[in-house]
Specification:
The complex is a heterodimer of chains A (285) and B (304). Chain A has 285 residues and is mainly α. Chain A has two domains: 62 residues, no CATH class; 200 residues, Orthogonal Bundle (MetI-like fold), CATH 1.10.3720. In chain A, α5 runs antiparallel to α10 and α7 packs across α8. The longest helix of chain A has 35 residues. Chain A is extended, with a radius of gyration of 30 Å. Chain B has a domain of 203 residues: Orthogonal Bundle (MetI-like fold). Helices cover 78% and strands 0% of the residues of chain B. In chain B, α6 crosses α8 and α8 packs across α10. Chain B is flat. The chains are: A mainly alpha (285), B mainly alpha (304). The interface between A and B is large, with 62 and 64 residues.
């Protein structure tokens, strides 16, 4: 043994003194700094407590509601459809039909807007900026908010729901499409231009083959999220499963609520799996 | 030998004919696949439009004019000479936004709902992600089952959860907070677990080597690596949650949404437009602030 640890026979006190001599800032944090650290944490905790109080998140309210919630959960078992299976399943079908129709209309509306929003097609920077901000403004409006106002225009029923979904998705899809178009390789288009192609030919053979799979996969993604949004729209009167659910929650028929929720979750997971399969097929070929 | 066979003319013709026949079959198959895809899509669309009552719903006159009428009602009657006058003067901006103090407090409640829900959702999502990530989960079956649970929660729309919670907790912001927190937990749990699965394993092993337990390994080996990712995901979720919280009031779960449904019930369409402008403005402000913070975080991560 040639190397002997020089710190081996030092006492604890001496060790700490040596450590402070080597790296003073690492061993002892000054008291002012430590107070500041604690102060920040205390302030953050206070702010959070205040926030919680503002949104009624107090133990008393929580406990009361939680008792009700447990009672509801107790009522959920066993789930039962009370002889209304056909009605519930047809409402589910109507909900998914609303999602498909709304997405289809949105795709139609979003294709020209997506072309318009792409930097590669509208080259003027100010125009590009304004068009994109315009989409952003409409992207901030949720489908439910559209549905509320469209039901006034078209009356209760799924028509307003379909249009609301389409309105909410057009700016979303337009942005996604525009990004897909911007991200595609310009070389095939240059090639067609060099071979003497017209503008339409450039779009058809230079752009479409490249962006179509991406756009299709993004549309499917929006469709998946619409399966969820469509279920919500029934609550404000656009028909479908949301309406059935709300009706049953209002009369505290939680066994039927549980049946509907389970049926809905199974359907959505199934549809999501199918759509995911198609999407990965589209992207990876 | 093959080349000798091709050299003779009749063999050449035979090969060409064979090739053409095969090519025809391939092209036909391709066409058939394309046509069947178009047919299936058309069938799905037809059934969907039929089931959703798109063409048979009786909505009176043509749809475009109904929308036009509604837009007409939504635009307030502003008068240029009275634009900046007080609230009691009709035609002024103040009379359009006539209940501004209430709306501002409801907007701030909306932000608070989103904030509290995002904080709770992030914390719970962090713990859920520990269970749901392949490399950190203490037990293999736990990893699988917690993933499935998160998936099921993600399929439930937050408004339907809020509807049940409003029945339990009564009208107020708390059901909204819980509903959004639940959705946030599920989606952040998934995103966080994906971040967890890409970590560098060496720091964790170092902590393990000096005798750290499971939690110490997580605290000093994992969290420092994933914290910037977590923060940027949580901020992204905050943006989504502000929009969700704005809509939640429609079912009585707090926030500005309650005014939206009130404006519709009292047919105050110009008020609806005013509220829409406020909501869009709020979401814009939140988006810009969160984007600035996220870019800052990404900068920090790149600088390291």
């Amino acid at each position: 043994m040639t190397t002997i640890n020089p710190y081996l026979n030092l006492s604890r006190q001496d060790l700490i003194a040596k450590a402070i001599a080597i790296a003073p800032k690492l061993v002892s944090i000054p008291i002012s700094r430590r107070l500041l650290n604690y102060g920040v944490w205390v302030l953050a905790a206070l702010a959070f407590a205040l926030l919680c109080k503002n949104v009624d998140m107090t133990p008393a309210v929580f406990a009361k509601g939680f008792k009700n919630l447990l009672r509801f959960f107790g009522g959920m078992f066993p789930p039962e459809a009370a002889g209304q299976e056909i009605r519930i399943l047809s409402a589910l079908a109507a909900t998914f039909a609303m999602a498909v129709s709304g997405t289809f209309l949105a795709i139609f509306g979003a294709i020209p807007l997506g072309l318009l929003g792409a930097k590669t097609l509208v080259k003027q920077p100010l125009a590009h900026f304004l068009i994109r901000r315009f989409y952003d403004v409409f992207r901030a409006i949720p489908a439910l908010v559209w549905a509320l106002i469209l039901i006034v225009a078209y009356g209760l029923g799924p028509f307003a729901g379909v249009v609301a979904l389409a309105f909410a998705d057009i700016p979303r899809l337009a942005k996604l499409y525009a990004e897909a178009i911007e991200n595609c390789d310009p070389k095939p288009q240059d090639g067609i231009l060099a071979a003497g192609g017209e503008r339409v030919a450039i779009l058809r053979f230079g752009l479409v083959p490249e962006v179509l799979p991406v756009m299709a996969s993004q549309s499917l993604y929006v469709l998946e999220s619409n399966f969820r949004h469509a279920a919500i729209l029934g609550i404000v009167g656009a028909g479908g499963i949301g309406f059935e659910l709300e009706e049953r929650i209002r009369i505290f028929a939680f066994d039927q609520v549980a049946w509907i929720v389970i049926a809905y979750v199974i359907c959505v997971m199934l549809l999501d799996t199918i759509s995911e399969k198609i999407r990965s097929h589209l992207i990876h070929g | 030998m093959l080349q000798n066979m091709i050299k003779t003319d009749e063999n050449k013709a035979k090969f060409v004919a064979e090739f053409e026949a095969r090519r025809k079959i391939v092209v036909m198959k391709h066409r058939a696949a394309q046509i069947s895809i178009v047919l299936i899509l058309g069938l799905i669309l037809g059934v969907s439009f039929y089931t959703s009552g798109f063409f048979i719903t009786n909505y009176g006159t043509d749809p475009m004019s109904r929308i036009g009428d509604l837009l007409n009602k939504m635009i307030p009657d502003l008068e240029p000479q009275n634009l900046l006058k007080g609230r009691s003067q009709s035609g002024s901006i103040a009379s359009w936004f006539y209940d501004m103090p209430t709306w501002l407090s409801l907007l701030s409640q909306t932000v608070q709902i989103a904030l509290v829900a995002t904080i709770f959702g992030s914390v719970l999502g962090f713990f859920a992600s520990l269970l749901a990530s392949k490399n950190l989960s203490p037990l293999p079956w736990l990893h699988w089952s917690s993933r499935r649970v998160l998936e099921i929660i993600r399929t439930l729309p937050d408004l339907i959860v809020a509807l049940i919670l409003v029945a339990a907790f009564g009208v107020g912001p708390l059901p909204g907070v819980i509903a959004i927190a639940l959705g946030t937990t599920a989606s952040l749990g998934k995103l966080f677990s994906e971040a967890n699965e890409t970590i560098d394993w060496r720091p964790v092993e170092a902590v393990k080597a000096v005798g750290g337990g499971w939690w110490t390994q997580i605290r000093f080996g994992v969290i420092p690596q994933v914290l910037p990712n977590y923060a940027s995901y949580a901020l992204m979720r905050l943006e989504i949650n502000v929009g969700a919280a704005a809509a939640l009031g429609v079912v009585g779960a707090g926030g500005i949404g309650i005014e939206l449904s009130r404006a519709i019930t009292y047919t105050e369409f110009d008020t609806y437009l005013a509220l829409l402008i406020l909501i869009v403005g709020l979401i814009f402000i939140i988006d810009i602030a969160s984007e600035a913070v996220r870019h800052h975080l990404i900068g920090l991560k790149l600088a390291r």
